[in-house]
Amino acid sequence: MQTDLTYDVLIVGAGPVGLSLGISLAQKGKKVILLEKEASTAEYSRAPSLWPKTQEILAELGVIHHFQKAAIELPVMEIFDADKNLNILRLPIKELGGSTPFPQLLLLPQSKTEEILLKKLKKFHSATVIFSSEVSKVIQEKDKVNVTANQKNAEKQYSAKIVVGADGAHSTVREQMQIAFPGTTYAFKAALADIKFPDDLMIPFPRISTKECPAIGIKISENLWRIIMPFSDRDKMELQERSERSVNHLFPQLEWELVWKSEFSLYRRLASNFTKGRVVLAGDAAHLNSPVGGQGMNSGIQDVPVLTAAIIESLTNNNSGPLEVYSNKRRKEIEKGVNRFTHILTRILLKSKGKMIKPVFKLLNYLMRFPPLRRKFLKKIAMLS
Fold this sequence. Notes:
Elements: E1 2-12, H1 16-27, E2 32-35, E3 49-50, H2 52-60, H3 64-70, E4 72-74, E5 77-81, E6 86-91, E7 105-107, H4 110-121, E8 127-130, E9 134-140, E10 145-151, E11 154-165, H5 172-176, E12 183-196, E13 207-209, E14 215-221, E15 224-232, H6 239-250, E16 257-270, E17 275-276, E18 279-281, E19 287-288, H7 296-301, H8 303-317, H9 321-336, H10 338-349, H11 357-367, H12 371-381
Parallel strand pairs: 1-2, 1-11, 2-8, 5-13, 11-18
Antiparallel strand pairs: 3-7, 4-7, 5-6, 9-10, 10-11, 12-15, 12-16, 13-14, 14-15, 16-19, 17-18
Helix pairs in contact: 1-4, 1-8, 8-9, 9-10
């Protein structure tokens, strides 16, 4: 077994969180390596929403101009009822201009997000990324952590002063550290589909339909749309049929091509601890929430500034104390913030098999008439509160 030289930080996972953290640490001159089990960055869109708070962090990482150039900008988000051809909710995010330099929602396929972040990371000589590298063991010693990874049917060992598990909901790092991941599974699932049109559709979005089965359509690039289809776990409709029915209601009489589809259960989970010694968790490996509200990836990227500060202090003092402080503080923020907020949204919007979605949007639209309530909700959805 080959053993590589010791790094300051080894990050397991090269998704948006791992890549962002890698850039942040490399900016501070730290020697960092990322190990990713997949052969490349994400191929499909997955999480497409980037809220203002996340954009502030992307600005600190020196990449926001690339995102603004590539993404669709929504300073005002208007939800369109495709069944009745009218707007049912208006969210003027631009009114947050006094609270953030980025008062808009950016929509961009996650594949493009990772592409931009990887390109930036590769500019740092102190940073290394290795794909097709699946971590199998994480063992702590007094002053370092040893990580074993499988690469092309061969094992290789790496050593780092600190290891970060940014390897998603099924985190190997979390499992190796025997950190519990308690939470709940919702009685709903979500189906996702990406569809492509022959030409750029200049029609209102996000758009919603509740005929047969509820569905929301969001434009994420010039001719690519994300379709979100929540359903009860007792609903046995096949994914292909669900996708076809939903798209035909959202875009009647239009030709389209299915690019990608998937379905998954909805969870709300929080690791019992975000750190153990010199090993620390971030992103979905530490906290998992419902995708309703589009805040999951955002909350992971928002781990980066506070985790970077904790890592730098730990490396400077050669102890894990700052990581424990990060764990205690960030865990409480996530529990009372994004996990609670997305849980409330999920319970309300998916009540009665999704039949409450339109009435809730209409009620919210009425409440948006009152400036104090409007500003409070806008800051919450923008993750600025």
